[in-house]
Amino acid sequence: MTSLIDNGSHGCIFHPSINACDGNIAAEPDSKTHITKIQKNESALSEIKIGKTIQQIPFYSHYFAPVIHHCDITVTHMNYELIRQCKTMQDDFSRYSDGDKYISSKIRYVGKYPLHKYIQNISNKKQRLRKIFNTHLHLLTACQKLLDNSIIHFDLKPANIMFDEIQSIPIIIDFGLSSIIPNPRVTSDPSSYKDFFVTNIAYDYWCIDIFMLSHIAFEELFYANSVVTQNHLDYLFEQFQTGTFKNLVTPQEIRTFAIEYRNYFSKYAAQRKTWKDLFQDVIKYYNTWDNYALALCYLHTCSKLNSSNHMLKQYTEYLKKHVLLAMPKERKTLQQVREYILESLSSEAIE
Questions:
Q1: Are 67 and 47 in contact (CB under 8 A)?
Q2: Which of 53, 83, 108 is the last residue of a domain?
Q3: Fewest CB within 10 angstroms: 112, 248, 265, 343, which?
Q4: Residues 289, 210: contact at Cβ < 8 Å?
Q5: What's the farthest any 2 CA atoms get from each other in the chain?
Q6: Where a domain ends, among 40, 74, 108?
Q7: Which residue spans adopt a coiled-coil conformation according to this UniProt entry (predicted)?
Q8: Which residues lie closer than 8 Å to 226 by C-beta, 6 or more apart?
Q9: Residues 91, 97, 98, 104: what is their CA dihedral angle, to the nearest 10 degrees?
Q10: Same domain, 61 and 174
Q11: Counting Cβ atoms within 10 Å, is residue 327 exposed (0-12), middle (13-18) or buried (19+)?
Q12: Per residue in 226-262, is it b (16+ CB within 10 Å) or e — as a string?
């Protein structure tokens, strides 16, 4: 029997999948292996576009679970008993209006275990360490495949990486915030990126580059052509520090990070550069953004293990120093982290 398994801000997910495209709710022959995601039109269109691109990637199902089919529906197509728990649709359904448009998307079901929970539940420490390194390598490859297609996932967090027990590999899901980045070599004008940066909030899994560049693109705090000031730089730094970030670093590491941040960005204020100048310099390092989010996911996972393993400590220290706390130009790429894991950590743990 179909039930609500996720109730997000943009829509709801049901499993087994349902066919809402024919004007009624009906089960499908392959319903147990798929989910149905019902969203407002505007929040689904980008995910559908990204899904079409991902499906062109060879062996994409080994890494991703994108939208594979969709259709337009209205609330009048929906069974109240089924969707009454979906908060984002309750008000629309109560009005029973044909004008309330939604999109129903079909997505492969990849299991019920987020990767971090699966790893934390492995009792054998050697097997757990091996799973950490192997899954990280797999996801680095996945993110590189997205990057090769100019896709930034933008929402890589523990809840969006599921462990597929059938294939025994992690799968990236939920491309609702994902975007195809404009080529910075073609255009680096901040106004061209307003649709790319969906918001300018401090989000746990976004690096400081994204936070700064989104503010420049939205021009809510300052104009792109205005001169960079130290006060604004200091303000951005203070606003950037989210709870997840602070939980993973020590007070001393935050102080060191603050010094490096000032050393890195103060030159723009000192040289009376504009925010547009800063934008054009920093946007070049977009290829490290999903790597930052992925490193944060693994640091978060490892922080819950209460392990004293020297190899794990070496690994987490590397991720903190060279990804989490690194300035844009110094932040390691996906390939560099992959090389580190393969070359510096025990081959026995990775095999």
A1: yes
A2: 108
A3: 343
A4: yes
A5: 65
A6: 108
A7: none
A8: 274, 275
A9: 10
A10: no
A11: middle
A12: eebeeebbbebbeebebebbeebbeeeeeeebeeebe
Residues 6+ apart with CB under 8 A from 76: 96, 97, 98
What DSSP designation does 227 have?
B
Interval 192-212: pLDDT, tens: 787 788 777 778 999 999 999
Alpha-carbon gap, residue 48 to 26, rounded angstroms: 22
Instruction: Specify whether the CB–CB gap between 82 and 36 falls below 8 A.
Output: no
Please give the model's pTM, rounded to 2 decimal places. 0.92
Q: Residue 235: which domain range?
A: 115-350
Residue 133: HSE in the Cβ half-sphere, 13 Å Cα cutoff: 23
Q: Do 279 and 168 have their domain in common?
A: yes
- Residue 61, judged by CB atoms within 10 A of its CB (0-12, 13-18, 19+), counts as middle
Instruction: Specify whether the CB–CB gap between 17 and 106 falls below 8 A.
Output: yes
Mean pLDDT lowest among 4-8, 44-48, 174-178, 181-185? 181-185
* Beta-carbon-side half-sphere exposure of residue 175 (alpha carbons within 13 Å): 28
Which of 277, 288, 286 has the alpha carbon at shortest distance from 319?
A: 288
Structure tokens at 297: 């996911």
Of 187, 188, 176, 186, the residue nearest 152 (C-alpha):
176
- pLDDT single digits (tens) 318-343: 999 999 999 999 999 999 999 999 99
Hunting for tokens 């203070």 — which residue is that? 238
pLDDT digits (tens, 9 = 90+) for 244-287: 899 999 999 999 999 999 999 999 999 999 999 999 999 999 99
Rounded to a whole number of angstroms, the distance between the first and last alpha carbons of the chain is 40
The whole-angstrom separation of Cα 122 and Cα 206 is 28
Instruction: Take residue 12 and report the two structure tokens written for it.
Output: 């709801």
